């Protein structure tokens, strides 16, 4: 049996990382056009760096919560028992899944702790804060940006995800509002191919699932995994 799990900001909320669209969420404090689009970065790189430097500092201080830990346990047990394929697709740019012990994590919206050169495409770990003045260590010329996927850009790992989703027997969506494509279309795509679909979220999202359980991720994910 193949399982595909999709996670969103809600799974990291109880680790102290902000969600985007909840009351008081990141997009209510920072207009997404300004900080999460290539046009916003071209217009005001310093503002975008400030936004991601702030989030990078919070993410470095944060710890995985019981939901991240439960998914890592599930993956380990799944592999050990040879039960089938296991993939964890995350829209999150934090590294809390990896720090909880998850191994097969596909970061479709990139990683906060990585940097990307806008000129030569070099991608590497980001040692600290980024600034508009910093230049790429590989080509020496390009401006650096966070290695994350902004609106209008193509998400990462789409080929692999495109194979995994229709092959899923069980598709589980955790802590995502289902408002951002292409991730918002995965559950329907998996269902069309015959998967059972389950949502674990604080409140029902706009997606359609065979089953939905409501509550805080740190409570309902371990209960589901147990
Ligand atoms: C809890 C909880 C707790 C809270 N426990 N739960 C019209 C139609 C269709 C598509 C488009 C369209 N117009 C434009 C588009 C495309 C666009 C898009 O989807 N726009 C929509 C707004 C309509 N998408 C794109 O541009 C994407 N690229 C693309 O489509 O390329 C074309 C292409 C695709 C595929 C192949 C080839 C070509 C790129 C999207 C990039 C999104 N980037 C961001 C920023 C990343 C960097 C960063 O982190 O700053 O990704 S935006 C932001 O939203 C971030 C997130 O990953 C993403 C999703 O948010 P998420 O995770 O769902 O968070 P929230 O806040 O929305 O929801 C949190 C949920 O948790 C809520 O439900 C809460 O209830 C719950 N919760 N506490 C459990 N304790």
Write down the Rg.
18 Å
What proportion of the residues is helical, as a percent range?
A: 25-40%
Query: What best-fitting shape do the alpha-carbon axes yield?
Result: globular
Beta content: 15-25%
Q: Strand sequence of the main sheet, in spatial order?
A: 3-2-1-7-8-9
* Number of domain modules: 2
What's the total number of strands?
Answer: 9
**Name of the CATH first level of the largest domain:** Alpha Beta
Give an overview of the whole structure.
The chain is of the alpha/beta class and 226 residues long. It has 2 domains: 1-16 and 64-109 and 155-226, 3-Layer(aba) Sandwich (Rossmann fold); 18-61 and 113-148, SIR2/SIRT2 'Small Domain' (2-Layer Sandwich). The chain is built from 9 helices and 9 strands. Strands 3-2-1-7-8-9 form a 6-stranded parallel beta sheet, sandwiched between helices. A hairpin with a 5-residue loop joins strand 4 (110-117) and strand 5. Helix 5 runs parallel beside helix 9 (217-225). The structure holds ligand BJW. Residues 8-10, 13-14, 19-22, 25, 36, 91, 93, 109, 148-155, 158, 175-177, 179-182, 201-203, 205, 216-217 line the site of ligand BJW.
Name some characteristics of this structure.
226 residues, alpha/beta, Rossmann fold, SIR2/SIRT2 'Small Domain', three-stranded antiparallel sheet, binds ligand BJW
